[in-house]
Amino acid sequence: MAATVSDILLDWYDRHARDLPWRAPPGTPPPDPYRVWLSEVMLQQTTVAAVKPYFEAFTRRWPDVAALAAAPEDDVMAAWAGLGYYSRARNLVKCARAVAARGGFPTTETELRELPGLGAYTAAAVAAIAFAQRAVVVDANVERVVARLFAIDTPIPAARKPIRVAADAITPARRAGDFAQAMMDLGSSVCTAREPKCLLCPLAKTCKARATGDPARLPVKAPKKPKPLRRGRAFWIEREGEVWLVRREGKGMLGGMRALPDDGWSARADGTGEAPMPGTWESAGVVRHVFTHAALELSVVVQRNAPAPDAQGEWWPIDRIDDAGLPTLFAKAARLVLAG
Ligand code: SF4
Predict the structure, then answer these.
(1) For the HhH-GPD domain, which residue ranges apply (predicted)?
(2) Does residue 223 fall inside a structural domain?
(3) Annotated catalytic, 314?
């Protein structure tokens, strides 16, 4: 089955590959590792459609890894705002600096894995796509396709090991990068989560899940534990067309980002409710946000014509609030206040 699956899939990819700004067309020399790495890190956060404008803005501003390495971390964090998982933006800068210091990206999966913040998936993807190395690249799309091809019905996460073994068995030595991208494309456009389009699938004949008649039930996912609900308050402090912003502590949730002051909620605890200064606070409503480890209900309260709090921070023009690089949670809070 191994040779057959990769041959059929590469043939399909030659005709149906998605045209994406970080890709090289099938069968052409590999793309720039910087662009592959950057796109893969961004794609771990969100969809291709959401990543495209970020990728274009990043590569326009920082066209190569040396330019990104030389950028102030604050600028990169602000450009990343809206993509989520801000620790990844910090790691992006760290990794760019390590790569620039060594004179370029290493070419093997093992050496790539040693770069700061570069995980197993990204190392495999960059090695395969940018350096044509044989590497087993398994993202959520590939996981789904492989679970179905081999009818692996162990629930994820326990299924990850057999899925990896099966993915390894079908990964070819030649064109491993195109193969990885072909699997990603198949997963995103044909073997989709809810309604796989088996009639259009080049692998339909060999697919075990299809033979069972209900491929969409795979992969099986272990039931999710409900996320703890945290509560906190954010403070909109305004005077003369400006709002008071703070810089969050360098480590921890949304670390290093500009934000509204808050009452110290975290992934592990509710906030104390304590305001950064005395005075009368009006409610602007509640913002709900879901993080990896917790859900948050953030009450947003407002004080106008206020003095500066007795703490570090800066007055920021409200009509330029979109340029502050606020993470999504605080951007939502700002929108709530401004809509009111
Ligand atoms: S035949 Fe259907 S279930 Fe199997 S890989 Fe193709 S699209 Fe997915």
Answers:
(1) 42-189
(2) no
(3) no
- Number of structural domains, the chain? 2
| Structural domain that includes position 283 | 229-339
Other C-beta atoms lying within 10 Å of the C-beta of residue 22: 23
CATH code at 53?
1.10.340.30
Residue 288 identity (one-letter amino acid) = R
CA atoms of 199 and 201, how far apart (whole Å): 6
29 lies in the same domain as 155: yes
Same domain, 212 and 235: no
Do residues 41 and 131 make contact, with C-beta atoms less than 8 angstroms apart?
Answer: no
Closest residue to atom 4 of ligand 1, CA basis: 207
Judge whether 32 and 65 are in contact, CB under 8 Å: no
Mean pLDDT of 49-74: 96
To the nearest whole percent, how much of the chain has pLDDT over 90? Answer: 81
Residue 236 is assigned to a structural domain of this protein: yes
Mean pLDDT, rounded, of the chain: 93
Q: What's the pLDDT band for 310 if we cut at 50, 70, 90?
A: confident
Q: Which whole number is the average pLDDT over 309-338?
A: 93
* Residues 169, 237 within the same domain: no
* CB distance 327 to ligand 1 below 6 Å: no
Closest-CA residue to 298 (of 274, 268, 262) = 262
Please check whether residue 224 lies inside any domain of the structure: no
Same domain, 176 and 256: no
Q: Please choose from 191, 194, 208 the residue to mutate so as to test ligand 1's pocket, defined by most ligand atoms within 8 A of CB.
A: 191
Q: Is 191 in the pocket of ligand 1 (CB under 6 A)?
A: yes
Tokens representing 197 are: 């389009």
My answer on whether 31 and 152 are in the same domain is yes
Give pTM, 2 decimals: 0.78
Q: Is the pLDDT confidence value at 3 over 80?
A: no
pLDDT, tens only, 279-295: 999 999 999 999 888 99
- Comparing 279 with 84, which gets the higher pLDDT? 279
Whole-angstrom distance, CA of residue 44 vs CA of residue 172: 24
